[in-house]
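Subject: mismatched residue count in predicted assembly?

I count 764 residues in my input, but I want to confirm that the predicted structure covers every chain. Input:
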Amino acid sequence: MREVAVVSAGMTPFGELWRHSLRDLFVEASLEALRNARADSVDAVYVGNMSGGQFVGQEHLAPLLVDQLGFRGVAATRVESACASGGAALRAAFLDVASGMSDVVLAAGVEKMNDGADVTGVLASAADQEAEVYHGVTFPGLYAMIARAHMEQHGTTLEDLAAVSVKNHRHGALNPKAQFRQEVTLEQVMNSSLVADPLRLLHCSPVSDGAAAVLLCPLSRAKEFTDRPVRIRASGLATSSMALAERRDPAFLDAVRLSASRAYKMAGLSPSGIDVAEVHDCFSIAEICVIEALCFVEPGRGGQAARTGETALGGRLPVNPSGGLKSKGHPVGATGIAQVIEIFDQLRGAAGERQVADAAIGLTQNMGGSGASSVVHIFERV
Amino acid sequence: MREVAVVSAGMTPFGELWRHSLRDLFVEASLEALRNARADSVDAVYVGNMSGGQFVGQEHLAPLLVDQLGFRGVAATRVESACASGGAALRAAFLDVASGMSDVVLAAGVEKMNDGADVTGVLASAADQEAEVYHGVTFPGLYAMIARAHMEQHGTTLEDLAAVSVKNHRHGALNPKAQFRQEVTLEQVMNSSLVADPLRLLHCSPVSDGAAAVLLCPLSRAKEFTDRPVRIRASGLATSSMALAERRDPAFLDAVRLSASRAYKMAGLSPSGIDVAEVHDCFSIAEICVIEALCFVEPGRGGQAARTGETALGGRLPVNPSGGLKSKGHPVGATGIAQVIEIFDQLRGAAGERQVADAAIGLTQNMGGSGASSVVHIFERV
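Triage response: the counts match. Full output below for your records.
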């Protein structure tokens, strides 16, 4: 297996971008990644997208988007794993380069959610239609059940949940690409509108448009494109049952644990080797469960981590320095790649006000549904 | 790059399977592939599916389907490239094994089209929404324009078009898994209902449900699963403009030519080295254009090939011995894998009444949209 590097990145701002179409967003992010590497051709493109078909009536995005980019002819494929589509696209691009099939590969995620579709209904198609959706549950409801289970089992408090949002908004306020660049207080979170008890509006990531792209190549060729490449040290992908009710413990994200175990093993690293992480905080409870499943904290202690500052910028292990999905925004297919871009910037010392001092090893964790799929990547400063 | 083999296959019958859900179909085909190889575990699964979201309200198929199969936890990803989703899934599985990441990988395609959705509308989302669909064109209309252009340029006749359907129905009548197991006459084709002039009902592949699965592993391990493995000698993927109007020549499928060139180069073979092929005859005109783009016949001579018997069983180069999409059926996400299964059977001498004598090298060509994406694989008897 060839060693693979990330050599450049591009990203649109995330937000309600009513004046931008899906193809505009893809092209803007991809061109930025290509320009930054001074690359004028690629061998392959992977597009991470959850639901172009339902959101904007457009399937078959891969050939459409490479053509829009000016690369008609280039091999291109769309990869979908709901909200983990970006992470899954990165993994596909990684395997393409690692196999020796392609040298220069673009992995780009994109989603156009604000375009008139019933967003809650479309997102629900990432849950089990027969066992869950038919009976009326939506994602805020599923994550509310996860939150309730975590509170029951571990004594996690409403303040713990709110602290995740407060932290991520504080980080996101420093991110020029974030959808919400303002801090929120614990009181604001705890008094925001109830969405699905115990989750309130400020526990939920927003509905977003946006795109993010990274360029990959063999590590041996990385210096052609940048003087600061970042090596992909491991890729782990795992699944769990789609329906929350079929899991042994709804508050334990077993696919996250399994994907992380595979990545740690491939990297030859333990969780203590990670300096900075971007994880899938689609709801505040998700970050709590994810950092436990990644073994960043003891089981049941995820609720305390944000409250004590352990996972804040300046803490023991900063989590979601970008602002996370909560503050940066969550255009679902783009999220996994945007996470990679934050780690790429952090490991290159290019994260500006959000810089984690001397970050050498970073991790991304991207999740689909209520945790039925999870993709973990580990990156290393070269 | 490691050598990769196909070691077993499984497939549902194709047809209007009102009593079978998408998950039933996937499990039936996949279990057959696993049973045939006596494999009780896999390292990864790739699901080829065009539009579970629009057809049956279900995205995020990869974790759902591996769980239904009893493989909860296993790495799984959905790959989409419209009607080329199956071929794209095979390519992703091939790269996964070739890279050394995974050893035993299932590539399965599935589509459930008969379930109440507006099938023509959903399929149209594989064309360019802005440049084509918005203005009212559907796929029969797009392929009718391709047919008109081919007739104008090359003198292709209505009899030539009809001969493709007659040939493929004759082949499909010998295939127990085919949706239509009856022969049709030239007169029947030419007098069937007009769909989009010059294309008539019997020029069009049907709306189908079905699934198909193949098991891949490193060639070095193939004998653990079968005494007759088939080697994947090459994989070529290419794209073209999504909108037909933007192509230099609507009757020339440039993505097919490019994907084939890449595959021939990788295999170190010329078109004359191919003994049998399965190609994407979603409409009769498609087979004509595809065999030209694959360089099986001279440019403009595709129309004569079926009429003269050159591409029939017993001819110089049998094309679509399975019956093709026309007669076997076209559950869009499953088609690319079903093509591989026919070639797998042919190269193992297991194609029964459809057997091409002494077939040693076979090719599959799977297409998305009106030719915006094309995947070509070349296989070799070991």
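The first helix of chain A runs from residue 22 to 36. Marking this ticket as 'not a bug'.
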